Amino acid sequence: MVENANVCTLVRSRHHARVYNAVCLRKASPVVISHISHLARSLATARPGSPPNRRIPSPSRTAEQVLAEELETAASVVKSDAVPSESAVQSALKLCENLARSVVEPIESPETSTSVEKTPTSNLLSLDEQSRAPMMSSPTKTLSRRILEDPTPDSISSTAHSIVTDPKVFITPALLATYLYTQSVLGRPESFPVIFDLYASKPIPQPGRLPIKYKDANPKRASSAVPLVLAHSALTAAIKAKDLTLCLSIIDTSVCTTAYKRSKILRRALLPFSGLALTPAAAYVLAAQLAHYQHSMDHQMATNMVFAGIVAYVGFTATIGVVAITTANDQMDRITWATGTPLRERWLREEERALVDRVAGAWGFQDENKRGEEEGGEWEALREWALMRGMVLDKPELMEGME
């Protein structure tokens, strides 16, 4: 047996004329284990006439080279002087996403039959299975250890970040979603607030011009608002990272912006208010038609009376509906509005309150009987942060048993 730093060469008798190369799996990184298994299976299917002393390249070096080539391919999309297309940038980010999933996700052990004959090759493969057994027993613990110890996630994360932050790349909602998912898989959500700021205020490159000219973006436009579903996914990653400051920064740069409030008004309030604005004209036309069906009073007087009745009915009903919507608290868990908060502000900032409610639920006790007993610096900081924004953490009159 010849042994060096990485490879142990096992030479059997000259009668068999075979060479088995076993890689020391316990020292290999998790990224390399799948490559080792592939090499071992290729040895098992090798023909007897193959050269006995053939050296196999180090799998770890091969894996590192493949990873470097893939990252170089992804980063090459922004190395050109021209503005890259959205599809090209999306392909590069998808490549980073696939690399992130292959590095971080636990490697599944192959299914083997119980009737497999014990051979030197199966013994060699058993080393691979033994190295994977602890990984499959506790995937959460292993995942955290791999993320912290393996430098590969850092290189993938930095490559994706360099692509998105490049001045020539215009961040679209699709690109933002892919980037957030990639960094969430890698457990690197620290850059989310910066990316949200860039999404709203990054200068827009003008394609087809050399040198590239940039147009200033308006961060207060409704189109600059971060989609709510992406804000929720970013907050989920920050909660998993147990970073309270990051959670609050994500809330500040997503649903607290002027752009998001304008977007909400356009999406959810424009149609109802347009209908309300057209109500007087529609009511007058309807009143004039209904006035023809009576003969007890003057036509104009009847029209005015019907018009006043329709407008009063629509106005009173709409007012009750607005009050019911803005004062509803069934969806609130631990964060509620402070007394005196205007109804208009409650409706505009409901998503902000909901995200803060998620953070409070993640940092506080899950047992409802222990709520209100939390203490510590982070908990008090969260309470003060909510109070400065017109919200109350654990309002006593709304807690269980305190009605």
TrEMBL record:
<feature type="region of interest" description="Disordered">
    <location>
        <begin position="106"/>
        <end position="143"/>
    </location>
</feature>
<keyword id="KW-0472">Membrane</keyword>
<feature type="transmembrane region" description="Helical">
    <location>
        <begin position="305"/>
        <end position="325"/>
    </location>
</feature>
<keyword id="KW-1133">Transmembrane helix</keyword>
<feature type="compositionally biased region" description="Low complexity">
    <location>
        <begin position="52"/>
        <end position="61"/>
    </location>
</feature>
<keyword id="KW-0812">Transmembrane</keyword>
<protein>
    <submittedName>
        <fullName>Uncharacterized protein</fullName>
    </submittedName>
</protein>
<feature type="transmembrane region" description="Helical">
    <location>
        <begin position="270"/>
        <end position="293"/>
    </location>
</feature>
<feature type="compositionally biased region" description="Polar residues">
    <location>
        <begin position="110"/>
        <end position="125"/>
    </location>
</feature>
<feature type="region of interest" description="Disordered">
    <location>
        <begin position="43"/>
        <end position="62"/>
    </location>
</feature>
